[in-house]
Every structure is written in structure tokens, then in C-alpha cells.
Automatic annotation (TrEMBL):
Keywords attached to this entry: Transferase
Alphabetical list of Pfam families matching this protein: DAHP_synth_1
One of the record's GO molecular function terms: transferase activity
Organism (species): Pyrolobus fumarii (strain DSM 11204 / 1A)
Gene3D superfamilies per UniProt: Aldolase class I (3.20.20.70)
UniProt name for this protein: Phospho-2-dehydro-3-deoxyheptonate aldolase
Length: 343
């Protein structure tokens, strides 16, 4: 359960009551609220005693699996901040290459996505590949190239962290990180990113594993938030499926369903489920129409030479045309594309 405390009221009595009932609990500041998340067998009994207590504003989610990620206690949408970009208000687009391959490649990619109006730059410094013989990424040095190129245009940069041992260094370089589909349930990584998010205020974005349910995805975000991180967003990137018309099956229905359950912003990656360039645009438009609050799209200055995901990375021209269509679609839906941050 979640107990939202009244500001300025001593909570020692509340904590004492939770201990007496044998509950485990953690006190956190999340989304500018003073909260206690508590769990254990006698939750119901403790909740009853706490309702109406002078230090307690709200007791919520009693006995439910979802706690901090749930919409119930916060009562609306939350906003994640990647540098100077707000995710969860106006529509935003994250774009950049699958993998960072050279300084020149990342500079070209950043310049292309910036001129098309992207808000955040992405690029993989470490690449989680199915085969150990495929391009594995350049590592920390590449994250520095990415951040330098993005910051020179006034845009924030994000990259993937796979190994908790790299996390602190990465947080010193970029403005946020994403947890890849393959790492979504690596709980030591989730906890470490949550701690670093709390320390630095930088964002953590969590991709849904391609074999994971909505509930498992939301529970992954609970690990991050339980460390005191309130700068979290979720990325849908499709499921493994028997159908082979695309690389993965983008779950369009999960977008409104997730938005009904969680306050966290929902971003969609249309590139990995598409698997091929010509499917990226229809999936991007479908996800936007279904209520995604942003997109994450792979763009490469010369995709035919890419060292990973060459079939699905858009050319700068294709990306620019997609951005124009997105603006029209958003307008038709009564929504709007966020203004691009200024350098
Ligand atoms: Mn990729």
C-alpha cells in the first residue's frame, strides 16, 4: 500500500504503527510528495488504522501488486525530465542511430535529427547483440561523442546501460539511460539505475521485454522508483510472435491499457518491431494515434553501412518526412509536438 503523508506532519507514529503490524516499508520523496510504501501480510489491518490519521493524506493501493507505478495514488499523468525536455506533456521524439559507430557518424546523425526537429538524441554505446560475433559497441568513449554532439545542438542525450558497473560513469556523461528489452528484469541493474537517478535527477526509461507482460513491465519500474527515482518513463517495443511479417509485433493495444494503469509516460519504439524501414512510418503513426506520448526512432546518416539494425534505420530524409506527418496527425488529434529545446 501507499501512504501519502501530509507535509510538515511528523510521521514517526505512522512508521511505528507499520512496524508494530510487522510490515516492511520504505519512506520516499516521489513527485514532490512524501510517501511511504509498505507491504506485508497485515496490510489491510494497518490501512484501516491509518485512514483518518492526522499525518496521513491518503492510503492507496491496499493489497494490489502495483504500487508506485500505479495511477491510483498520484491521480494523473507524471512527467519525466530528460535534460531540458519534458516527457508526458506535449509529444516528443527521441531519435538517433542504433549503435554509435564513429565520431563522424554520430555527429552526422545528431545534426540530421536535430534539423528535422527531434527533442532527444539516442545512440547505443554498448550493443546487446544476439551473437557475440556481432558488433558489440564502442563503450564509454562513444557515449561521450554522443553527449558532445547532442549538447552542441542544445539537445539531451540518452544511451543504454547493460552492466551496473558502467552505470555511474554513464550517468556522468548523458542525460538519461534506457534499460533494454533484454535487461528489463535484471533487478540489480534496475535498483542501481534508480539510486543514480535519485542522486543525479537524470532519467531512466524502461523498455518492455519482448516476452514480458504489462504487469511485469510495470513491476520493473517499481524497482527503479523504490530507490527514490521519480524520473521514469516506459518504452513499448513489441513482442516476439509467431507472425513474421515484421521483426516483432508492436502491441498497439498495450498503449491505452498501460496509460489507464500507470501515471508513467509511455513512449513507443516503432523501429525494432518494424525491422524494416518501410514499416517504421505506419507503426509510428499507429502508436501516436493510440496515445503514445512520444516515439523513439532509429535514424542513421547512411543506413546501408550500419553495423547493426541496418534494415530498419531511417535515412535523414525519411525521418524528416515522418516528422512532418506526425505534426499533421497530432494536430488532427488535438495534441501538439513539443517545441524543440534551444541551444
Ligand atoms: Mn537497434
Amino acid at each position: 500500500m501507499i501512504i501519502v503523508l501530509r507535509r510538515g506532519e511528523a510521521a514517526s507514529e505512522v512508521e511505528g504503527l507499520l512496524s508494530d503490524e510487522g510490515l516492511e516499508y520504505k519512506r520516499l520523496v516521489l513527485y514532490d510528495r512524501d510517501v511511504i510504501v509498505a507491504w506485508g501480510p497485515s496490510e489491510d489491518k494497518a490501512a484501516e488504522k491509518l485512514r483518518g490519521h492526522p499525518a496521513v493524506e491518503l492510503v492507496s493501493n491496499v493489497g494490489s501488486k502495483l504500487q508506485l507505478s500505479s495511477r491510483e495514488w498520484l491521480g494523473g499523468d507524471s512527467v519525466a525530465r530528460i535534460g531540458n525536455v519534458e516527457v508526458g506533456r506535449d509529444f516528443i521524439v527521441i531519435a538517433g542511430p542504433c549503435g554509435i559507430e564513429s565520431r563522424e557518424q554520430v555527429e552526422e546523425a545528431v545534426s540530421a535529427v536535430w534539423s528535422a526537429g527531434a527533442h532527444v538524441v539516442r545512440g547505443g554505446a554498448w550493443k546487446p547483440r544476439t551473437s557475440p560475433y556481432s558488433f558489440q559497441g564502442i563503450g564509454l568513449e562513444a557515449a561521450k561523442w554522443l553527449a558532445e554532439a547532442a549538447h552542441s545542438k542544445g539537445l539531451p542525450a540518452i544511451t543504454e546501460v547493460m552492466d551496473p558497473r558502467d552505470a555511474r560513469q554513464v550517468f556522468n556523461i548523458v542525460d538519461g539511460v534506457w534499460v533494454g528489452a533484454r535487461s528489463m528484469q535484471v533487478t540489480p541493474l534496475l535498483r542501481e539505475l534508480g539510486r543514480l537517478c535519485r542522486e543525479t535527477g537524470k532519467a531512466v526509461l524502461i523498455k518492455r521485454g519482448f516476452g514480458n507482460t504489462l504487469e511485469e513491465w510495470l513491476l520493473a519500474s517499481e524497482y527503479v522508483m523504490l530507490e527514490g527515482c521519480s524520473n521514469v518513463a516506459l518504452i513499448e517495443r513489441g513482442s516476439r510472435c509467431w507472425a513474421s511479417v515484421s521483426r516483432f509485433s508492436l502491441d498497439v493495444a498495450i498503449i491505452p491499457v498501460a496509460r489507464g494503469k500507470t501515471h508513467l509516460p509511455i513512449i513507443v519504439d516503432p523501429s525494432h518491431p518494424a525491422g524494416k524501414r518501410e514499416l517504421v512510418e505506419p507503426l509510428a503513426l499507429a502508436a501516436t494515434a493510440a496515445g503514445a506520448q512520444g516515439l523513439m526512432i532509429e535514424v542513421h546518416p547512411w543506413p546501408e553501412k550500419a553495423l547493426s539494425d541496418k534494415q530498419q534505420q531511417l535515412t535523414p530524409g525519411e525521418f524528416k518526412r515522418l516528422m512532418e506527418k506526425l505534426k499533421l496527425l497530432l494536430e488532427a488529434l488535438g495534441r501538439r509536438m513539443a517545441p524543440q529545446p534551444k541551444a
